[in-house]
Specification:
The chain is an alpha/beta fold. Helix 3 links the parallel strand 3 and strand 4.
Amino acid sequence: MKEWWVQVGLLTVPLLAVYLHIPPPSLSPALLSWRSSGAYFTYKDQNIFYRDSTGAVGSSDIVVLLHGFPTSSYDWYKIWEGLTQRFQRVIALDFVGFGFSDKPRPHHYSIFEQASIMEGLVRHLGLHHQRINLLSHDYGDTVAQELLYRYEHNKTGSILINSLCLSNGGIFPETHYPRLIQKILKDGGLLSLIITRLMNFFFFSRGLLQYINQRKKHRERWVGALMSTSVPLHLIYGPLDPVNPHPEFLQLYKKVLPTSTVTVLDDHISHYPQLEDPTGFLNAYLNFINSF
């Protein structure tokens, strides 16, 4: 009941803003700086924002960061500098529909398209012949699973994956509990149509939320990729996560993927561990990278 009222409260403000024609707020100095430090490449007819930082001298290692829903590459800002001290290249993009990338509509958004965009960025940067470490979160975990499937099946244009680190994502549909607003908008119906029309706000469109259904439909493909791979796997997990709750999620993860290593952060860390505990998250990731 408490969550229901919270969700209603969260909806009230943007709905009123639309009715009153309040313009969107200006970007903060931090976001302006993030955007000015990035660039764009074109995937088909879509402009995709990305950041590419040159880091550690003497290292040839590359890390690519895959963000979650409904945010952007800015999710990684607290650990960006730390990563540049270890990796020669640190790269992140805003998936289509997110952040500073294009948000076409109507549009059929899919995990498959996002994976192809990631492959397109790697080709654009001339890194398609180099091995790459993937670090992902939430929605990005599923994109990483699709990239892993393509790599394991030698698909043309696939990224050469050196390692994969997942964090707090709906890897298993059966232990993923989307928030109420996600359920409403994903399933459609009158309430969904009213909300999407009133809000006129992209992230609350049904199309983008179809990734939840895609996880269920393609579970065998994406979980199977994790089960069969020889790529080093790691999970960094915030155990207070209400979307992928402890201990249910972690028990299933260890059962299905017994060869993967796991870092469980402090008990108060929730769904965005890289933001809530950047030091713990970064240390866990670097320990994993340095272990092989």
